[in-house]
Amino acid sequence: MDQQQCIIDTHHITTHTMGRGDLGRGEGEKRLRYMLKDGSCPVVFHQSPGQWSFFLADIFTTLVELRWRVMLLIFCLSYILSWLFFSLLYFLIAYVHKDLEDHDTAPCVANVRSFTSAFLYSMSTQATIGYGFRVMTENCMVAIVVVTIQALMSCFIDTVVIGITVAKMACASKRAQTVGFSSCAVVNARDGALCLVWRIADFRRNHILEGTARAQLVRPMKHPSGMISVTYQDLDIQSRHLILATPASIVHKLEPGSPLYSLGPDSLTEEDFDLVVSFTYTGDSTGILHQTRTSYTPADIRWGQRFQDMVQVGRRHYKVDYALFHQTTWVQTPMVSAQEGDRGRPPTTESIVQSQQPFVRSSRKFRRSLADVSEEVVQEAWL
């Protein structure tokens, strides 16, 4: 009989669970995740100390983190307001020097007879390297000082605009969007032990050469007094340092010491935690440090499944099928926790040898003490 393999696309599956973490919630309310799937945290700050001073103290980072439309609006306003400010100064200089009334006198700025002409002269001073119809004369020292200040201000504004634009285009969060985690995690048996596995891949052609994976179990807890505390537990990962030329599987072994050691397929749905996973790496093109992160809830963990094989070896290349990146298939897996599985597992030869070591040591001590006693008896009899 031919065996048929069942493939499940978990990327489009939504599982609704109700466990201990959902007690006290309404029927239509959803569990609040500590971290969303895109790596952001649904946290809102209220009345933080020095709220605006923090943003003003690091104004460069504040501008980089703004949205493009807000940043472009600020840049346009910075140019327009500077043009208006200096055009007002030129207009006041012309008014005090009576250039607006007497056209026969030598003006401070040639052909500046109104506020409109002063605005055009201010814009040409800040945006060009030469003059045409309106030029500065040597009749007014104050006007020369104002032109010098505007030239320096123009260089400063251009530097800030170009620097922030380049930093925003090379922002680490943009590169992090091209490195993705699987939509779910799976639990299956590997080398005789239950393991929690999730996938990570780089979707760009200029692949990351090396990075570091990390996983934490985050449990928000509400105390009877109403106080909410968050606990963090690090998970041990096999092969923490990865070469991400092809998609890699990150494995956490469910062994004694793991916070998931006592959880089975039934008790897992009753838990309330977030498995926060991250991958930190340096971009090979820019040299900037990046981090991609996401989270898995108990509803995102599939027990008794494994990921589909998506890497094939060709004659000259490794072929990767990203259509199978989120797909899983059923495999034979014990439907009990790792702790229950270790209890019901027959003892191995190694465990038997380890259990017999104390008895062997005690028997050796007994024979050694018996030999000492017999030697003492012989010595007394000889005396």
From TrEMBL:
Localization annotation: Membrane
GO CC annotation: monoatomic ion channel complex; plasma membrane
Which stretches make up the Inward rectifier potassium channel C-terminal domain?
A: 180-342
A molecular function (GO) held by this record is: inward rectifier potassium channel activity
Main localization (coarse)? membrane
The catalysed reaction is: K(+)(in) = K(+)(out)
Q: Which domain of life is it from?
A: Eukaryota
For membrane topology, the record states: Multi-pass membrane protein
Which stretches are transmembrane? 70-93, 141-167
Q: Name one GO biological process term.
A: nervous system development
- The Potassium channel inwardly rectifying transmembrane domain is annotated at 36-170
| Gene3D superfamilies in UniProt | 1.10.287.70, G protein-activated inward rectifier potassium channel 1
Kindly give the Pfam families that the UniProt entry links to this protein.
IRK, IRK_C
Q: What's in the keyword line of the UniProt record?
A: Ion channel, Ion transport, Membrane, Potassium, Potassium transport, Transmembrane, Transmembrane helix, Transport, Voltage-gated channel
Query: Secreted as a keyword?
Result: no
Repeat among keywords: no
InterPro entries for this protein:
Ig_E-set (IPR014756), IRK_C (IPR041647), K_chnl_inward-rec_Kir (IPR016449), K_chnl_inward-rec_Kir_cyto (IPR013518), Kir_TM (IPR040445)
Site residues (Role in the control of polyamine-mediated channel gating and in the blocking by intracellular magnesium), renumbered to this chain = D158
Record-stated family:
Belongs to the inward rectifier-type potassium channel (TC 1.A.2.1) family.
**Record's PANTHER family?**
INWARD RECTIFIER POTASSIUM CHANNEL, INWARD RECTIFIER POTASSIUM CHANNEL 16
Q: What is this protein called?
A: Inward rectifier potassium channel 16-like
Supply the source organism for this entry.
Salmo trutta
Gene symbol of the encoding locus: LOC115207517
